[in-house]
Request: fold
Amino acid sequence: MTVTLALIILNALISWQAFQRTDILEKLKHYPYAEKRVREWSRLITGTFVHGDWMHLAFNMYALYSFGEALENKFIDNFGSTSGRVFYLLVYLLSGLLANLVTYHKQQDNPGFASVGASGSVSGVLFSFIIFYPLAKLLLFYIIPIPGILAAILYLIYSTYAGKKGQGNIDHTAHFWGAISGFVLTLALKPALWNEFIELIKQGF
Reply:
Protein backbone atom coordinates (compact mmCIF):
# COMPACT_ATOMS: atom_id res chain seq x y z
CA MET A 1 0.00 0.00 0.00
CA THR A 2 1.32 3.45 -0.86
CA VAL A 3 1.66 6.18 1.76
CA THR A 4 -0.80 8.24 -0.27
CA LEU A 5 -3.48 5.56 -0.10
CA ALA A 6 -2.85 5.03 3.62
CA LEU A 7 -3.31 8.77 4.23
CA ILE A 8 -6.55 8.81 2.24
CA ILE A 9 -7.91 5.87 4.24
CA LEU A 10 -6.87 7.46 7.54
CA ASN A 11 -8.47 10.79 6.61
CA ALA A 12 -11.67 9.03 5.54
CA LEU A 13 -11.93 6.91 8.70
CA ILE A 14 -11.27 9.78 11.12
CA SER A 15 -13.56 12.16 9.26
CA TRP A 16 -16.32 9.53 9.04
CA GLN A 17 -16.18 9.08 12.82
CA ALA A 18 -16.38 12.85 13.27
CA PHE A 19 -19.42 12.99 10.98
CA GLN A 20 -21.17 10.53 13.29
CA ARG A 21 -20.17 12.17 16.56
CA THR A 22 -19.81 15.91 17.01
CA ASP A 23 -17.80 15.41 20.21
CA ILE A 24 -15.02 13.83 18.14
CA LEU A 25 -15.06 16.79 15.76
CA GLU A 26 -14.89 19.20 18.69
CA LYS A 27 -12.00 17.29 20.25
CA LEU A 28 -9.90 17.02 17.08
CA LYS A 29 -10.45 20.31 15.23
CA HIS A 30 -7.74 22.96 15.03
CA TYR A 31 -8.85 25.47 17.66
CA PRO A 32 -6.07 28.00 18.47
CA TYR A 33 -7.97 29.50 21.42
CA ALA A 34 -8.01 26.14 23.20
CA GLU A 35 -4.52 25.22 22.05
CA LYS A 36 -3.15 28.26 23.82
CA ARG A 37 -5.18 28.06 27.00
CA VAL A 38 -5.46 24.31 27.58
CA ARG A 39 -2.27 23.44 25.71
CA GLU A 40 -4.05 21.00 23.40
CA TRP A 41 -1.18 21.06 20.91
CA SER A 42 -2.24 17.76 19.33
CA ARG A 43 -5.02 19.69 17.58
CA LEU A 44 -2.39 21.20 15.28
CA ILE A 45 -2.11 17.77 13.66
CA THR A 46 -5.45 16.10 14.39
CA GLY A 47 -7.25 19.04 12.79
CA THR A 48 -5.67 18.10 9.47
CA PHE A 49 -7.31 14.64 9.50
CA VAL A 50 -10.90 15.66 10.19
CA HIS A 51 -13.25 17.35 7.70
CA GLY A 52 -16.45 19.35 7.83
CA ASP A 53 -18.52 17.20 5.48
CA TRP A 54 -18.29 14.55 2.76
CA MET A 55 -17.76 17.10 -0.01
CA HIS A 56 -14.86 18.70 1.85
CA LEU A 57 -13.31 15.27 2.42
CA ALA A 58 -13.86 14.13 -1.18
CA PHE A 59 -12.32 17.27 -2.67
CA ASN A 60 -9.18 17.06 -0.53
CA MET A 61 -8.73 13.32 -1.02
CA TYR A 62 -9.22 13.57 -4.78
CA ALA A 63 -6.51 16.25 -4.92
CA LEU A 64 -4.23 14.18 -2.67
CA TYR A 65 -4.66 11.11 -4.87
CA SER A 66 -4.21 13.11 -8.09
CA PHE A 67 -0.85 14.58 -7.07
CA GLY A 68 0.29 12.39 -4.20
CA GLU A 69 0.81 9.14 -6.08
CA ALA A 70 3.12 10.72 -8.66
CA LEU A 71 4.93 12.75 -6.00
CA GLU A 72 5.47 9.73 -3.78
CA ASN A 73 7.07 7.92 -6.71
CA LYS A 74 9.35 10.90 -7.34
CA PHE A 75 10.43 10.86 -3.70
CA ILE A 76 11.21 7.15 -3.97
CA ASP A 77 13.24 7.81 -7.14
CA ASN A 78 15.22 10.58 -5.43
CA PHE A 79 15.66 9.22 -1.90
CA GLY A 80 15.17 5.47 -2.11
CA SER A 81 12.26 3.21 -1.23
CA THR A 82 12.15 3.68 2.55
CA SER A 83 13.57 7.19 2.90
CA GLY A 84 11.46 8.40 0.00
CA ARG A 85 8.24 7.28 1.67
CA VAL A 86 9.32 8.70 5.04
CA PHE A 87 10.28 12.07 3.54
CA TYR A 88 7.06 12.21 1.54
CA LEU A 89 5.05 11.59 4.72
CA LEU A 90 7.04 14.26 6.55
CA VAL A 91 6.32 16.82 3.82
CA TYR A 92 2.62 16.00 4.07
CA LEU A 93 2.47 16.19 7.87
CA LEU A 94 4.77 19.19 8.32
CA SER A 95 2.98 21.21 5.63
CA GLY A 96 -0.28 20.82 7.55
CA LEU A 97 1.40 21.48 10.90
CA LEU A 98 3.23 24.62 9.76
CA ALA A 99 0.09 25.95 8.08
CA ASN A 100 -1.84 25.52 11.32
CA LEU A 101 0.96 27.15 13.33
CA VAL A 102 0.52 30.30 11.26
CA THR A 103 -3.22 30.41 11.90
CA TYR A 104 -2.52 29.64 15.55
CA HIS A 105 -0.34 32.75 15.73
CA LYS A 106 -3.04 34.85 14.07
CA GLN A 107 -6.10 33.42 15.83
CA GLN A 108 -4.91 32.35 19.30
CA ASP A 109 -7.05 34.98 21.04
CA ASN A 110 -10.11 34.52 18.83
CA PRO A 111 -12.61 32.10 20.44
CA GLY A 112 -14.70 32.18 17.26
CA PHE A 113 -12.07 30.68 14.99
CA ALA A 114 -11.59 26.96 14.32
CA SER A 115 -10.68 25.00 11.22
CA VAL A 116 -10.60 21.44 9.95
CA GLY A 117 -9.31 19.66 6.89
CA ALA A 118 -6.22 18.45 5.08
CA SER A 119 -6.04 21.45 2.76
CA GLY A 120 -2.75 22.73 4.22
CA SER A 121 -1.15 19.31 3.81
CA VAL A 122 -2.60 18.83 0.34
CA SER A 123 -1.39 22.29 -0.70
CA GLY A 124 2.08 21.23 0.44
CA VAL A 125 1.86 18.08 -1.68
CA LEU A 126 0.70 20.11 -4.69
CA PHE A 127 3.58 22.58 -4.47
CA SER A 128 6.08 19.80 -3.91
CA PHE A 129 4.64 18.14 -7.03
CA ILE A 130 5.19 21.35 -9.00
CA ILE A 131 8.93 21.22 -8.25
CA PHE A 132 9.09 17.98 -10.24
CA TYR A 133 6.40 18.83 -12.79
CA PRO A 134 6.35 22.65 -13.16
CA LEU A 135 4.79 22.50 -16.62
CA ALA A 136 2.21 19.81 -15.97
CA LYS A 137 -1.20 21.06 -17.09
CA LEU A 138 -3.54 21.89 -14.20
CA LEU A 139 -7.14 22.99 -14.70
CA LEU A 140 -7.92 26.56 -13.71
CA PHE A 141 -11.52 26.62 -12.43
CA TYR A 142 -11.54 22.90 -13.42
CA ILE A 143 -11.85 23.99 -17.07
CA ILE A 144 -8.83 25.91 -18.42
CA PRO A 145 -5.53 23.96 -18.66
CA ILE A 146 -2.51 26.05 -17.60
CA PRO A 147 1.09 25.15 -16.63
CA GLY A 148 1.52 24.09 -13.01
CA ILE A 149 3.95 26.90 -12.20
CA LEU A 150 1.44 29.50 -13.39
CA ALA A 151 -1.35 27.78 -11.46
CA ALA A 152 0.87 27.87 -8.36
CA ILE A 153 1.47 31.62 -8.68
CA LEU A 154 -2.24 32.31 -9.16
CA TYR A 155 -3.05 30.04 -6.21
CA LEU A 156 -0.75 32.03 -3.92
CA ILE A 157 -2.12 35.36 -5.13
CA TYR A 158 -5.70 34.24 -4.61
CA SER A 159 -4.98 32.71 -1.17
CA THR A 160 -3.30 35.95 -0.07
CA TYR A 161 -6.20 38.07 -1.31
CA ALA A 162 -8.90 35.82 0.16
CA GLY A 163 -7.02 35.46 3.45
CA LYS A 164 -6.85 39.23 3.89
CA LYS A 165 -10.52 39.60 3.00
CA GLY A 166 -11.47 36.87 5.46
CA GLN A 167 -14.35 35.77 3.28
CA GLY A 168 -16.27 32.57 4.04
CA ASN A 169 -15.23 29.76 6.37
CA ILE A 170 -12.20 28.61 4.36
CA ASP A 171 -8.78 28.99 5.98
CA HIS A 172 -6.97 30.57 3.03
CA THR A 173 -4.00 31.48 5.22
CA ALA A 174 -3.40 27.79 5.90
CA HIS A 175 -3.64 27.06 2.17
CA PHE A 176 -0.96 29.64 1.45
CA TRP A 177 1.47 28.53 4.13
CA GLY A 178 0.86 24.84 3.53
CA ALA A 179 1.82 25.41 -0.10
CA ILE A 180 4.95 27.39 0.80
CA SER A 181 5.92 24.75 3.38
CA GLY A 182 5.65 21.87 0.91
CA PHE A 183 7.79 23.73 -1.62
CA VAL A 184 10.50 24.76 0.86
CA LEU A 185 10.62 21.44 2.71
CA THR A 186 11.13 19.52 -0.53
CA LEU A 187 13.99 21.78 -1.56
CA ALA A 188 15.49 21.52 1.93
CA LEU A 189 15.58 17.73 1.55
CA LYS A 190 17.46 18.01 -1.76
CA PRO A 191 18.63 21.54 -2.69
CA ALA A 192 19.77 20.34 -6.14
CA LEU A 193 16.10 20.06 -7.09
CA TRP A 194 16.00 23.85 -7.40
CA ASN A 195 18.34 23.82 -10.42
CA GLU A 196 16.40 20.95 -11.95
CA PHE A 197 13.16 22.88 -11.39
CA ILE A 198 14.56 25.98 -13.15
CA GLU A 199 15.89 23.88 -16.04
CA LEU A 200 12.48 22.24 -16.55
CA ILE A 201 10.86 25.67 -16.74
CA LYS A 202 13.47 26.93 -19.21
CA GLN A 203 12.97 23.89 -21.43
CA GLY A 204 9.24 24.48 -21.49
CA PHE A 205 9.54 28.09 -22.55
